[in-house]
Write a structure and sequence with these properties.
There is one protein chain. The chain has ten helices and 19 strands. The model has no long low-confidence stretch (mean pLDDT about 95). Strands 5-6-4-14-15-16-13-17 form an eight-stranded mixed sheet, sandwiched between helices. It has a six-stranded mixed sheet with strand order 8-2-1-12-19-18. Strands 9-10-11 form a three-stranded antiparallel sheet, with no helix packed on it. Helix 1 (about 15-25) links the parallel strand 1 and strand 2 (about 30-35). The chain has about 375 residues and is α/β, with parallel strands linked by helices. The protein has two domains: about 5-45 and about 155-225 and about 320-380, FAD/NAD(P)-binding domain; about 90-140 and about 230-315, D-Amino Acid Oxidase, subunit A, domain 2 (D-Amino Acid Oxidase, Chain A, domain 2). The radius of gyration is 21 Å and the shape is globular. The protein has helices at about 15-25, 60-70, 75-80, 100-110, 120-125, 160-170, 215-220, 285-295, 345-360, 375-380; strands spanning about 5-10, 30-35, 50, 90-95, 115-120, 135-140, 145, 175, 180-185, 190-195, 200, 205-210, 230-235, 250, 255-260, 265-275, 305-315, 325, 335. The chain binds flavin-adenine dinucleotide (FAD).
């Protein structure tokens, strides 16, 4: 492993590998990424793999629009098929959350997202398995969809991460698996080195892309990053033909319960309890809660047999924006964390913004101001 680098990236999830690629593409040569386990072994390999334009705030809608440019052009840029299937993302709202969804749809339309609103009868026609008795209305965008639908939690990492790694390496970056960062050396307010289980790497810049462990990495340089980890569980059923393969992803907004087809089976997800561990385990007892929700929203799922599942962490910040970019007082420390439930869909823009900032000292694609750690400094610094 190199002992000197221009930039060290801690974390080989979809965000860290995206930073490595975008930085290498901008001419960065001496880039070293360290991943304690395998690329994609954190949250990125456990997601539901949905990419959405239907975001809830203007900054995140713009992030999605920028990310879609890369995702829709992925084959040309990387020579890799990411298996994007625009199955559509349908949100169904009960009365208590209808205003919330209405406001989001209004904003999306203003920003050019082709979101359509649906009446309960439209929803029943579109997805007959959905119980609409308490549904006020729904919203769908047909460009939203799934990438790599069959590779979540499989042996191979997600094709997006594979492509980032492969192309970052081709451009000269070093990607190391099974190497843990254990500390950051700061002298006179500047990063000078990263300590790892494979030795010290002298570097003036370190990127914190450590996902669920981002707060731990921040603490090494005296920061209290407000990133808390929330567990979400996913269960996948055996072949279930009663819900057609081209059915859209359905999100029950009030319950935060969702389903989509995963191959011939059905994938269901739910859960938002804070986690006290970095290694979330699937609790089969939680299946009862998910099934209870399924019985209400899509009763036909009573006939499905759950075969497997997994649990992962969503690393949330208080305002649900990521924490990106530099921090005052520790020159060379750059955040790329706090991605919550958006880290896969926003991987292209996340890596691009951080790379622009490191390479050019400013971002040009989007303003990074709203994502700086400074927004929390009064309460958390
Ligand atoms: C069940 C579930 C469903 C989701 N569904 C979606 C979805 O449909 N769409 C979407 O956009 N997002 C979704 N998400 C969120 C998404 O998975 C995350 O936002 C995203 O994966 C975060 O990427 P990351 O690279 O920041 O973190 P991670 O993928 O967790 O990567 C961080 C990496 O850093 C490594 N690391 C940590 N500490 C160290 C250290 N000291 N040294 C070296 N390496 C270290 C870890 O091993 C890990 O591999 C979902 C999340 C869950 C849990």
């Amino acid at each position: 492993m190199r002992t000197r680098a221009d930039v060290v990236i801690i974390g080989g999830g979809i965000q860290g590998t995206s930073v490595a690629y975008h930085l290498a593409k901008r001419g960065g040569r001496d880039i070293v990424l360290v991943e304690v386990d395998m690329v994609g072994s954190g949250s990125s390999g456990r997601s539901a793999a949905m990419i959405l334009l239907q975001e809830s705030r203007d900054q995140t809608v713009r992030m999605s629009q920028e990310s879609f440019k890369e995702y829709l052009n992925f084959q040309d840029e990387f020579g890799v098929d990411i298996g994007y299937k625009p199955i559509g993302y349908l949100t169904v709202a009960t009365g208590d959350v209808a205003d919330e969804l209405r406001a989001e749809v209004e904003l999306q339309k203003q920003l050019g997202v082709p979101t359509e609103t649906l009446s309960p009868a439209d929803i029943a026609r579109l997805v007959p398995s959905v119980n609409i008795e308490d549904i006020v209305f729904g919203a769908v965008c047909w460009q939203d969809g799934v990438i790599d639908p069959h590779s979540v939690m499989q042996a191979d990492p997600h094709s997006v991460m594979q492509a980032y790694v492969q192309h970052a390496r081709r451009l000269g970056a070093e990607i190391n698996e099974k190497v843990e960062a254990t500390g950051i050396v700061v002298e006179k307010g500047r990063v000078v080195a990263v300590e790892t289980t494979a030795g010290r790497i002298l570097t003036p810049v370190v990127v914190n892309a450590a996902g669920a462990r981002a707060a731990q990495v921040g603490a090494w340089v005296g920061l209290r990053l407000p990133v808390a980890n929330y567990k979400r569980s996913i269960f996948v059923t055996d072949r279930f033909d009663a819900i057609p393969d081209d059915s859209p992803f359905v999100m029950d907004l009030a319950a935060e319960w969702y389903f989509r087809k995963e191959g011939k089976g059905v994938l269901m997800g739910m859960g938002r309890e804070e986690s006290t561990t970095f290694e979330p385990q699937l609790e089969w007892e939680f299946l009862d809660a998910i099934v209870e929700r399924a019985m209400h929203r899509a009763p036909i799922l009573a006939n499905a047999r759950v075969m497997r599942g997994w649990a992962g962490l969503r690393s949330l910040t208080p305002d649900d924006y990521p924490i990106l970019g530099p921090v005052a007082g520790v020159a060379g420390f750059v955040n790329a964390c706090g991605w919550g439930g958006h880290g896969v869909m926003h991987a292209p823009i996340g890596g691009l913004l951080v790379a622009e900032w490191i390479a050019e000292g400013k971002t040009t694609t989007m303003d990074m101001g709203p994502f700086l750690f400074e927004r929390f400094a009064a309460s958390a610094g």
